[in-house]
Amino acid sequence: MQYTTEKQTQYTLIKIEEEKLNANISPELKSVFVSLNTEGVDSFILDLSAVRYTDSSGLSAILIANRLCNQKHGALVLIGVNEHVMKLIAISQLDKILNVLPTMAEAIDFVMMTALERELQEGEEEE
């Protein structure tokens, strides 16, 4: 699988450099998510701008990333989602679960707000 990662303080950007996110790629993508999450990454921005097609196994990998982020009170944000992939997400009713945003700037803002909300909640629990 061709991809790049860019680690930041609050998130890790993963850019998929493949046209198809399918059963050939999704196991490796799942292991990337699990590995990074084990290292302490709690939020991912997943850039799918090169992806033209996904199948159920690709969506499954994305859902695993979403679950891992939620368990650590982080966020998964998808950016660069093309029309075909977005239709599959909508048909699967995953648009109600997944955070899909149009730009990197909006994705970063979303991750930062999620981190701020988590810090505020943790502060309230300590009181």
Overview of the molecule:
31% of the residues are buried. The protein has a single domain, classed as STAS domain (Transcription Regulator spoIIAA). The mean pLDDT is 94. The protein has helices at residues 26-38, 56-71, 83-91, 104-126; strands at 3-7, 12-16, 20-21, 44-47, 53-54, 76-79, 99-100. A five-stranded mixed β-sheet has the order 1-2-4-6-7. Strands 3-5 form a two-stranded parallel sheet. It is built from four helices and seven strands. With 127 residues, the chain is α/β, with parallel strands linked by helices.
- Report the structural category: alpha/beta
Number of strands: 7
**Broad CATH class:** Alpha Beta
Helical fraction equals: 40-55%
Secondary-structure element string: EEEHEEHEHEH
Give the CATH H-level superfamily.
Answer: STAS domain
Side-by-side strand order of the widest sheet: 1-2-4-6-7
Give a quick account of the main beta sheet: strands, pairing sense, barrel closure. 5 strands, mixed
Within the CATH hierarchy, at the fold level, what is the topology? Transcription Regulator spoIIAA
